[in-house]
Give the backbone structure.
Amino acid sequence: MTGLSNVMKDIRGRQRVKPHLPTEIVGFWTGEDLLDGKAVKTNTIIFRTKGCYWGRGGGCTMCGYVYDAATTNPTYEDIMAQYHSVEGRIDGSVVKLFTSGSFFDIGEVPEKARDEILTSLSKKVAKVIVETRPEFVTDKSMQAAKNIVDRLEIAVGLETSNDKIRIECINKNFLFKDFVRASETAKKYGVTTKAYLLLKPPFISEKDALEDMARSVLDAAPYAGTISINLCNVQRGTIVDELFQKKAYRPPWLWTIVEVIKRVHGKTGSVIMSDPLAAGSARGPHNCGQCDYDFADAIRKYSITQDISAFDGLECDCKLLWEKVLDLEDWTFGSPLIY
Amino acid sequence: MTRFFEVIYRDGAARLGKLLVRGGIETPFIERPLSDSSIIVNGGSAFIHERSSCSVDSFYVPPHVGLPGRVRDGFVNLFSPPVMEKIEGPLGVVVHPEWIAEGADMYIMAGARAMEGDPRSLLDAFIKIRASSKPDTALYVPALATPENVSLLIYLGADIIDNVLTTAKAYKGLYLTQDGEYTLDELPDLPCNCEVCSKYSVNDLKAMPPAERFALLGRHNDLRLEEEVKRVKLHIRRGMTREYIEKQCRSRPWLTGLLRLADMQYDYLEQRMPVYRSSEMLACSAESQNRVEVRRFAERVNARFQAEGDILLIIPCSARKPYSTSKSHMTIARALGRYRNLVHELILTSPLGVVPRELEIVYPAAHYDVTVTGVWDLEERKWVSDCLKKFIETHHFKKIIAHVEGPYVEVCKQTGIDMVYTSKGRITSDESLASLVEQIKLAASELSTRPRGTRELMLDMFRGMADYGFGAGKGKLLVPDNGNVKGKFPRFILFDGNEQLCSISPDFGSLSLTLEGAKRMGLGPDYVVEIGEFVPKGSILAPGVIGANLQIRPGDDVLVKGPKAIAVGKAKMSGAEMAESTRGMAVELRHVEKIS
C-alpha cells in the first residue's frame, strides 16, 4: 500500500536525525544463542550502511532502524573500518551480521567488503548468520557466500505468514512465497534459514496478533530452522510511534508471547525463540508492571533451553485482565482496550 | 434510510429511540458483547476475517479497520471507508470522523476508547459522524462508557454504549462509581447498595480469589453503568438532560471540558434543541449561561424582537415566573397605575440577559430558575450588561429609566449608556416608587409620549412573541390592529373578529397558531414543511416530508403545504431531521384543510 509508504516518508521527513559517520559501527554486543542444542556465546555486529532500500522509501510501519543509516554512503573502506573496529572483540561461536537492511544488498555492503568480512569470520567462528531481505537471496549470492563460509544462515524478516497483514499493516513489500523461494534457494547451497516474526503489528488487536503469530510460526517452520519472534516495540519516528502517542497502539502483552510459544511448542522441528526487548516499559512488550521482569526472564530462559517448563509457575492476577483483553479488544473497533 | 432504528424522543442531541430488532429494543442501549443480550455481530479485522452471513435480529458489522478520530489526517486515507453492500438485516459500520459511509443503520465511532481524556477529538468525532450520517441512524460509541462519563456520551448523541470498559476496569481491580474509580484498597466501605455491595464487604472482596473478585467488580460496575443510563433516560424524558450534565461533568476535568467545548460548537446542539418546552430550566452553574436556550433567547431578542416607543423602563427580574405575577412586579405595576402605558418594560436577569415584558411568557423566560446570592460574578455582569447594551442600541428609545437595585445597578452602569436611576435603596419602597412615577411623568411630558391602551399592550405581546418565534416583522402580519384578545393572563387567545388566529400556551412558552394565523404570516420560507400528494391526518411522518427548512427546530409551529392539503402543527424534530429521516413523527398537526 503506497499510502503507508507516504505516511512513513512524511514521518521520516519530520525526524531530527543525528548525523552518523560512515566509519562508525551501529552496534556490537555479546549474547547467548542456541547452536546444535547448546547455549553458546554469540556476537552481534550491526553495520552502518546507507540503510535499507525499502526503509529509505518509507519502509515498514514499526521500523526506526533507518535512522541509524549513515549520512553519506559508506564505501568499501568505510565498511571495512567498521569491521576492524570490532574484529578484535569477536569471541563467540556464532556471529550475527545485521545492517538493519540487507547484508546481501550490494548497494549497502559492497561485494568486496562482504566477501572479506565473511572470509575473516569463517576463520574465527562456527556459524555466521546474515540478515537479508529475500530478494537478495539468489543463486549468485548464496553460491558466493557459501564458498567462503561453511556454516551460513540467512535471517529474513518474514514478520508474518499473512500477506495481507505484512503488506497492509506492516507495509513490507514481499509475499510469503518470496520467503519460501529464498529459503529454498538457500537450502540448495546448504544455507539454513532463520525467520524473524513480528508479534502485534499496528492496526490489529491482541487476539488477532496472537492467532496470527501462532499460525505464522507453524507456516514458517518448514522453511526456517530457527524462528525468532520479535515483540513489537515502539521505535521513534514510525507509524507505530505515532499511533502509540495517540493511544492507538499498545505493544503486545508478555502473556501473549508465552501463549504463542505454549501453543506451538513441540509442533515444529524449529528452534523457537524471542528476545523481549524493552520488556516492562510502556514502549515495549508489557503486562501489568508487576510481573514483567519475571516474564522477560522466563522468555529468555525458554529461548536458550527450548524447555517449556521455563514458564512453570509464571502467574499474575493480570492474566485475567489479559484474557478479557483477548475477548474484548475487538470491541474497541480500533484502539487498545488497556494500555 | 434505515429500517432498523427510530428516534422516539429528543432532548437536544440526546435521544430515546428504538432498535427495531427482536421486537424493539430501547435506546440508549447497553451492548454487552459475547452475552445473550448482545445485538451486534462483530465481523472483526478486515485483515483477517471474511464477510460472513448475517441475521435479521442482530446488527452485522462487516470486517473493518478502525482508526481513532484523534489520529491525524494523514492516516485517514490509508484505509478506505467501508463499501456498503446491501444486506438483508441491520448493518453497522465502523467509521472514522473523516469517512463518509452512507447506507448503514448504525455507525460505530472507531477507537473511541483512545479519546478518553481528549474532549476535543471526541467532540469532533461526534459532530462529524452525526453530520455525515442520517439523523435516524443509531450511533454506537464503543468501549468508552463508564458510570462517570456515560451521561455526557448520551448527551452528545450516543444511542448505544457498552459494558466493555467497565468490564476491563473491573479486571484491573477498579471499582467504578458515578463520581470516580477506586481500587479496593482506597475504599474503607463500599459506597453502593447494589446486589454485590450489599452482600459483600471490602474485606470479603479482597479475600476472594481474583477471578471471583474481578467478576463481582464487573457485575457491580455493570450495575452502576445501567443505573446511570436509566437515570439519564429519565432526564431526557423530563427535558432536563442539560441540568444533569452540568452536575455530572464535574466528576472529571476532561468531562467538564467536553461540555464547555460542546457549548462552543453551538450549532451542533442548537439545531437539535427544542425552542419551546414545558420543563423547568435550572441555571445553577457557570456553564448554564452558555447553554443553547440562553444564548438562543438572547440572539432572538436581539435579532427578531422589535419595540417602538419613547421610554424604556428597566427593572430587575423576580424569582416567581411569569414576572408579572411576582410580588415585586405587581407592586411596581400598582404604583405605576396608568403611567405604565407610557413605558416599555425590560427585565434584567441572569442568565437570560434581558427579557422584554412582551416575551415574559416565552420559554425559557417563564421557565428558568437561577441561583440567587445577591452577588453577580464578573462574567454574569458582562453578559447581562452586553445584552442590555445591544438591546438599547438596536432600539430607539429616547429616555431610559433604570429602576434597579444592588448588582443590577452595576450592570446598567457597565453599559456606559446614560440612564435615569430612580431607586432609592429598595425598588419597592414608597420613596423609590414615587421617584419612578415622577421620572416617567417628566419624561412623558418632555417627549409628548403617546400612551398604549390595554388592548394594544396585549396585542404587542402577541406581536413580540410572533417576531420571536417566526422572525422580525411576522408579528405585524399576524396581529391586526383591531384584533381582539380574550382569556385571562397568560392564557390569551387572539381573534380577528370571530376568526381565531392563535393562542398563548404558557406551559410551553409558545404561540399556538391556527391555520388562519399561520396563513396570515405566510411562514415561508423558514417555517414551512412541504409534503407529498396526500391529505394528512393527525400527524406527518418523516417519510411524507419532501422538504423542510433548516431553521425549523423541535417545538416550532410550522405551516405544512402539499398539493392536496395545507395544515399547521408543531414540529417534533428539526427541519434537517425531517428532510433526512425515514422514520418518526415529523409534525404533530393541529388543523388541516383539504385543497380541492
Notes: Strands of chain A lie at 27-35, 38-46, 94-98, 127-131, 152-159, 192-199, 226-231, 271-273. Residues 3-332 of chain A form a domain with the TIM Barrel fold (CATH 3.20.20.70). Chain A has one domain: 3-332. The first strand of chain A starts at residue 27 and ends at 35.
